[in-house]
Amino acid sequence: MIDLNSATLAEIPPRTRRFTYDRSHVRAGIVHLSVGNFHRAHQAWYIDRLLEQAGHESWGIVGVGLLDDANERLKIEAFPAQDDLYTLTRYAPDGTSAHQVIGSLVDYLFAPHDTAAVLELMSDPSIRIVSMTITEGGYNQDGRTGGYDLSNPLTQAELAAPHAPKSAFGYIVEALRRRRDAGLPPFTVLSCDNLRDNGVVAHTAVLGHARALDVGLADWIEANVTFPSCMVDRITPAVLKPDADRVNEECGVHDRLPVISEDFAQWVIEDRFCQGRPPLEIVGAQLVDDVHPYELAKVRMLNASHSMLAYPGQLAGLESVRDAVEHPLIHKLVHDFMTFDVMPILSAPKGMDLGRYRDTILARFSNPRVGDRLSRITGDGASKLPTFLLPTLATILEKGGETRRLAFCIACFLRYLGGQDDRGEAFDPFEPHLDATARALGRDPAKALVSLPLFADVDFRSHPALVAQITEDVARIRNTGTLSVLKSLLETLA
Ligand code: CS2
Fold it and tell me: Cβ contacts of residue 491 below 8 Å, gap of 6+?
């Protein structure tokens, strides 16, 4: 099979669509921090579609890798070897697929090796947007106050040596300082993570970092930089070796880092860009004044349902999102969770039918070919639960309503922290923000619920009955298995 790069493009079989624009004319206008699969399936796909229309060549993307880990090491080799090209395979719910080569990523820099080059690029006025997908847990938020955590050792090191940044915020603040000092305009900071008010969270982080360094710079950023919020959506699974082999076969080209996604995509963006923006509305993105209701619906319906099915699913020994959502008990849990727990307290975006939105989500989870694994969804629950699930619980506690489905999911999460499923099989929960002591609290729910920062936004101390319910669920899951607890829960609620 031929290797993917600029020289072999013409040899790729026609079933894999190639971009038709002249890539040598595309220039960078966007720097994207952390080039994960989601970015490559979502934002880079939108920009690729835009480049297909003449006149937008100044909106190419340069990807920047921030973390020095095994995953990034693959990119350091693969991206240059492939001239930053990659294939995207999109699967529709009816099982059909579409393959294409994406050309919108025009360069890749690995920040730990190329700090100077990254800062130079970010300080160049041709870069008008710095976007990022650094995960929900990447914003260095203080679990208790929601503010920027200045006590984080990495942040402390960056503040002591601002010219040698390491994090997204260190880079952004240093690049903005250089631009201000050179009398240049700033750039828009665009968070593309699944956080409620992601623009506000990014603003808090950048300003928190800047203020600790230089109050004048912080004031300049406050006055000149915009931080639009946006809602991003496209299910993008992790691609393991067998998945990569399969899509490479389907595409007819050898890509070291192919991307897989569903065919559905949505991007709703607040129209506040301080240095202009690509006309993304012509390629299907929605530019709106207030992204809030869209974000809320996405995070509390789709992401929350993902968590709702993934913890019980993984404990029950299931592997994929499809396996879980097609299990009748789990299907009912998730369906009823959206219908009775979330939808009544959600203000839907204008014109959006939440019942239809729910049904589309369930159909997307059942996609027969995307192959999204439960372990991707359960991972980093400590960062996800506070955004996806716990605000719904807090609202129900305030307004009154049924809490048992949420209690069950929290019990499953606590049980999952122990790293053993119902069959006794061990797994390694990916929880980068929980140390061994915190994980061990999974066995002591009453203590975990009042002491782990991830639960801080729910007043468990004032709700002893709820704590007792979760404690009992954890014990019953351990003794009788997840699905038997779920079965009796659904019978009680019927
Ligand atoms: C998932 C998301 O990580 C998760 O838990 O819910 O990655 C989800 O697949 C995307 O937000 C879909 O847009």
Answer: none
Interatomic CA distance for residues 173 and 209, integer angstroms: 7
Would you say residue 311 has pLDDT above 80?
yes
Predicted confidence band at 196 (pLDDT cuts at 50, 70, 90)?
confident
Residue 307 alpha carbon, nearest atom of ligand 1: 5
Q: Which of 191, 235, 325 to mutate to test the pocket of ligand 1 (most atoms within 8 A of CB)?
A: 235
Q: Give the per-residue pLDDT at 145.
A: 84
Write out pLDDT tens, residues 5-41. 999 999 999 999 999 999 999 999 999 999 999 999 9
- Give residue 206's pLDDT band: very low, low, confident or very high (50, 70, 90): very high
- Which ligand 1 atom sits nearest the alpha carbon of residue 306? 6
Q: Which two tokens stand for residue 25?
A: 């004319």
Strand-pairing partners, residue 269, are 230, 287
- The secondary element (H helix, E strand) that includes residue 232 is strand 230-233
Cβ–Cβ < 8 Å for 441, 451: yes
pLDDT digits (tens, 9 = 90+) for 452-478: 999 999 999 999 999 999 999 999 999
Measured torsion, CA atoms of residues 129, 130, 135, 138, in degrees rounded to the nearest 10: -140
Tokens linked to 257: 């880092």
Average pLDDT, rounded, for the chain? 97
Residue found by looking up tokens 């989500």 in the block: 361
Phi, psi of 64 (to 5 degrees): -125, 125
461: its two tokens:
């101390």
Quick check: 326 and 223 in contact, CB under 8 A? no
Half-sphere exposure of 106 (CA within 13 A, CB side): 20
Q: Is 304 in the pocket of ligand 1 (CB under 6 A)?
A: no
Question: Cα torsion for 443, 445, 449, 455, to the nearest 10°?
Answer: 60
In testing the pocket of ligand 1, which one of 302, 325, 364, 366 has its CB within 8 Å of the most ligand atoms? 302
Cα-to-centroid distance, 92 and ligand 1 (Å): 17
User: What is the model's pTM?
Assistant: 0.96
**What is the distance between the alpha carbons of residues 326 and 309, in angstroms, rounded to a whole number?**
10
3-state secondary structure at position 169: helix
Torsion of CA 169, 170, 173, 178, to 10 degrees: -150
Q: What is the dihedral of CA 34, 36, 40, 41, to 10 degrees?
A: -140
Tokens coding 481:
């298995």
Query: What per-residue confidence (pLDDT) applies to 146?
Result: 82
Nearest alpha carbon to residue 131 among 302, 280, 261: 280
DSSP class of 92: -
d(CA 7, CA 104): 17
CA distance 494 to 487: 11
